[in-house]
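User: What would this chain look like folded?
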Amino acid sequence: MQENHQPTKKAVWSLLSGLVGVIWGILFVVPYYFLPQVFWGVIFILSYSYTANGEGFAQALQGGYTALAIISIVVWLLLIISIFAKRYYRGDRRVPRWISILLVIAGVLGVISTLPYILLEVPSLRNTIYQLQLIGILKLPVFFMFTGSAMLSIISGIGYLISLKNFRKKR
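Assistant: Here's the prediction, encoded as structure tokens.
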């Protein structure tokens, strides 16, 4: 009886990791095709977070701010779940090691890409972020980390979902 309980418990973690990974990737892809203004609003806020806090931009980018808040929450959840899943599946052959590592990398890249936006809440860092934006250091790295995180997340999420079949096999 305990042998049946243990694989079920582990399969739930694989399912959760796979779903969160795919959802994060979809949150990136869907707005790009169906809500391009929101997508590019988020990219603008990530790249020019200090500038976007001006009063004139705040109303125009309200959808971008809402989407970025949702994305930030999902990315932090992705990082936390990926770290727990990686530790949980250590030594378990049913989930390939590269899937766990890929999801952790996706979570780290996603969290790093939202840091300029989040760190604007720290008054002593606002000027530093503004200076980095003026010289253009944040634009491409943030965009590529954001994009890379979503793509790696989709790949590893699908990998976790595919590995669910390994839990149905008897040892």
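Residues 116 and 130 are 10 Å apart (CA to CA). If you want, I can go into more detail on any region.
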